[in-house]
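Q: Here's a chain of 172 amino acids. Please give me its 3D structure as tokens.
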Amino acid sequence: MLDIIPTADAWDRADARLALGYWPWSLLAQPEPLPETMLAAAADAIVDNALSGWGSSPDAFPPGVRQLYVDALRDPAHIHAICEEYRAAASLDRDHDHADRKTGRRIACPLLALWSEHGALAEWYVEEGGPEAQWRNWADDVSGGALPGGHFFPEESPIETAATLDAFFSGR
């Protein structure tokens, strides 16, 4: 998992920090066509906000990469798919998580939880033991930790991220 906590946990703990810090969770989950219309109308602003404002270095995304993100947000099919992902997280995914929790269903395989050292998750869930502790509520075999960078730490620290993933998948 990259820079995330379980979906139901995120929504169940949603507060002003989530609404303002990760506005896509609440905005993009709204019924269509509002979020689709907003994304298409302001693709440049949306990309600039996300890539520059979530604790990651603006240098992690060269102009060509930023442009690819903007171009994707100008494609109605891509926009709709992105919004459907957030709608599912706010409804179906959350419902499934709650059902799993109610029946005691747990993740049986080893789970790697990674989050950004300078992102919101490093601070928001400290009282609950951090993101790794959140995942321990769902799985028995959890490992992980914070990696250098902001929300987009894989782009900022690709070597560290790849080494961590390699170690996890090779059983080291």
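Q: Can you summarize the key feature?
A: The two ends are 17 Å apart (CA to CA).
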